[in-house]
Fold Ypt/Rab-GAP domain of gyp1p superfamily protein.
Amino acid sequence: MKNSDTHHTQFDHNQPRNDGTSTTIDSRFNQTLKNVQGLLKGRSIPGKVLLTRRVEPADESSVPSPDYRRTQSAHETGTSDRINTILDEDVQNTSKQGNTANVGKLKSSTSDNEITSKEVQRSTIGARATDSARVMKLTKELSGTTVILERLRELAWSGVPPYMRPTTWRLLLGYAPPNSDRREGVLRRKRLEYLECVSQFYDLPDSERSDDEINMLRQIAVDCPRTVPDVTFFQQEQVQKSLERILYTWAIRHPASGYVQGINDLVTPFLVVFLSEYLEGSTENWSVSTLSSQKISEIEADCYWCLSKLLEGMQDHYTFAQPGIQRLVFKLKELVRRIDEPVSRHIEEQGLEFIQFAFRWFNCLLIREIPFNLVTRLWDTYLAEGDALPDFLVYIYASFLLTWSDELQKLDFQEMVMFLQHLPTQNWSHQELEMVLSRAYMWHSMFNNSPSHLAG
């Protein structure tokens, strides 16, 4: 949250703003607390975290708000779970009515956490703490005869251990069937289908391609070496060839959009996750030359089908003029205006359009804006959102932008452009990412079912 009276009172659209000098910090905090409790009361809210007044100086690098700090209960799991949403310890999962839009984000109840509180361990896998109770639930869910997808979404939203990601992602995207008896057969058939597509569309001489197809393949070949350039793994020739095959085959089979720059970025999380089933250690030390051609083909197939499933839900993001992205950028502008009017006004006064910086965020799903080692964690939440992802992106990106609310208000047009093109996220850890997701969830809970709040 941002340290300003305006920011806090934005949450209460029924109370008049009090700008009097007699208003104290305590009264503003208590009113904000009451407002948010009222909005969230009766909803199923994940996690158990309190937002409390900060009473002693703190390191600004680890505390995202000047006025607030996160106080975590003994049952908290560090940065592994959503860290913002409970402002009232007594809010329980008592009502699911009218909350189907958020069912993919539900967390286990406080009582479940209390039962397993003594068993919570901090795992260093993925450089972040993981709730052992939630991991056990994930393990149980994935090992069942039939996976209950809504339950899996609930558990995956807060992050998935790396060794569970390949199976979890295939299920969340609907690529692998929930029924374990059918799973192996379906994957085998889809992988063979991908091989046939590559043979039919990619393994051809240019003489058998149209001019448009030749130009598209050349553009893909140019973009592959530029994909995640700061991760040496993606500079391997064999990796770039896999990217090229996946992207060209997808583009040929989806002529409504064809290949659009940015889709190359979207393949990379899938490639890393599915390769992790066969390669160990840091991606910096991976070499795909150690894998058989059959394994590489299977990994490519999984990437191809998962990319296809992901983009099914956002088809108009990549068709001519990319109207889906333009629509979401407009929603982002409106949401930021409601949440943080001062920074919204400053951006507008400086003549900066949201499309100038946010287009890339939606086009590449933030992959170019954060360290690559955080991308798969972010995508756990993306994929857990399912069909609701496009709308939820607006809240994530509002939270992302407003991380630098104070800084942005000090910059002129040119400085803002440079700042937003090179955001200072290079030293981000999971903690900063979890805070972005936390705020996004809170704002989504407050605004999503109240469209009048976002009316123009």
User: Anything to note?
Assistant: Strands lie at 49-53, 68-72. Confidence is low (pLDDT under 50) at residues 1-129. The first strand starts at residue 49 and ends at 53. Residues 323-449 form a domain with the Cyclin A; domain 1 fold (CATH 1.10.472.80).
